[in-house]
């Protein structure tokens, strides 16, 4: 099935001075084009407000506004006119999710003569795809890649499947239940399949209270912590398995690294987002200990938000070239 032809990305515009730059191929450059967003998704009109500078915006503390804004973004920039998530599930910030995919495309290019591989021959595994299924949707539209999205939550997968069917992408993107809730790759990868990439937005927090504290800190930084207002407990929503796990992101990624060794020959590049920069030294050390032949740390920025992902491979350049020829 050929990839859908999305709207052409807008001309690149510089982000406001002092703000972190998105990846050059990211469609979300510059300020949001509200006239285009409203044309693509008129329902957004009821949520548009004016910020203190008199510019159109939305209230990012309103979950209904954020969901509708995402629908408008996906319709305007990607030609995806059907997207929804059940109430209480994670509503992703789309520009940052797109940056992770573009960074991974660059990692693939480093072992492919500088050329980003595109099309359905490239297979990608999304660990914890969630109800939003955002990485497979964006990755298929931008690069034509085939995806498998996995999750431990059957309800999340059912919601994701509805989005895929509504957009005619259920043949390009497969959803798979990880029935072993304490495992990541084990029991999920089949012995005869291979992936060019794996990606993951892990549960960052170690507990519900830590997740709630993080949301309150974000509201405070945004100047929205008004005692007279009832704010959502969780920034961008999220079920417990999307936001926290025992040991937080460090324990989760360490387990991912351990399990990745068992599938070293099946995957060209493993990867995972890392929210807390303080975890990086331990993760780099563990990757070296388990025998990763190549390690990449890719830093990303969206406005004042700093993030990064780690990518690793158990194959050297010659072995990766042989892997591609099979």
From TrEMBL:
> Any idea which UniProt keywords this protein has?
Cytoplasm, Methyltransferase, rRNA processing, S-adenosyl-L-methionine, Transferase
Q: Which SUPFAM superfamilies match?
A: S-adenosyl-L-methionine-dependent methyltransferases
According to the UniProt entry, its GO molecular function terms are: methyltransferase activity
The function of this protein is: Specifically methylates the adenine in position 1618 of 23S rRNA.
Q: Which residues form the signal peptide?
A: none
Known catalysed reaction(s)? adenosine(1618) in 23S rRNA + S-adenosyl-L-methionine = N(6)-methyladenosine(1618) in 23S rRNA + S-adenosyl-L-homocysteine + H(+)
Q: What class of enzyme is it?
A: transferase
The Gene Ontology biological process annotation of the record reads:
methylation
Q: Region (Disordered) spans which residues? A: 1-28
Highest taxon in the source lineage: Bacteria
UniProt-recorded name of the protein: Ribosomal RNA large subunit methyltransferase F
